[in-house]
Amino acid sequence: MQRLGNFSGRFLRDDLSDIIVGQKTFPNDQPSWSDRGHLSNLFILQQGFAFKFEILPNGQRHIADFFGPGAICNWSRLSAFEEQDDILFKAHSVATILDARKLEALLDDKPGLASIIKRHELARTMRVTQRVRALISLSATESLLVVLLDLYDEFATAGFVDDRIPMPFIQQELADLLGVTPVHISRTFSRLEEDGIVERNNRSIRLTDATKVRESLSYRSFFHSGGRK
Predict the structure, then answer these.
(1) Residue 201: exposed, middle, or buried by beta-carbon count in 10 A (0-12, 13-18, 19+)?
(2) Fewest CB atoms within 10 Å of the CB: 62, 76, 82, 127?
């Protein structure tokens, strides 16, 4: 697994092969609870994208995090707490399904593997914390740039090396992630394009100088050694 390789030089696929119970393809956008037979299992994305969301008391949807290829989408199934958020798999995503009970036993038997996965999930938690702080303290334009850097980070962690990345979100989903309106997202993108910071084309996006944006926002990538900037 490319992602976990950032935390270990070991090849980990063989460790997990005995606990795979199947694979699922999502032809359309589909929440995890639509398949009751796998609610207690874990999903690892093989291709596509997914996001974690909840419906707020006012009826609005809040997107809390997102997942690219190789990500464990519902790791908290193994925690002592009930999973409160839903996972929505984007159309054409493919996920490998792991038996949660067998994985729990495997991690007890292989503490090294458990440590690698937990370090990966800690990196995800730290990235979410960084994004939440940005949403609270930065302007809407800067917050959108942090989200774009998070997308770059998510794809890079999965081994994607191109400087132009797929844009997995529609504007409504970006709005639900940032807590603004789709109109505001559209206007912010227009300003970023006019300023030469962002290029968009056919559901893909490119930061013209990603390094400069990272430095200006003091952005850290926690999925790589030392949480590099």
Answers:
(1) exposed
(2) 82
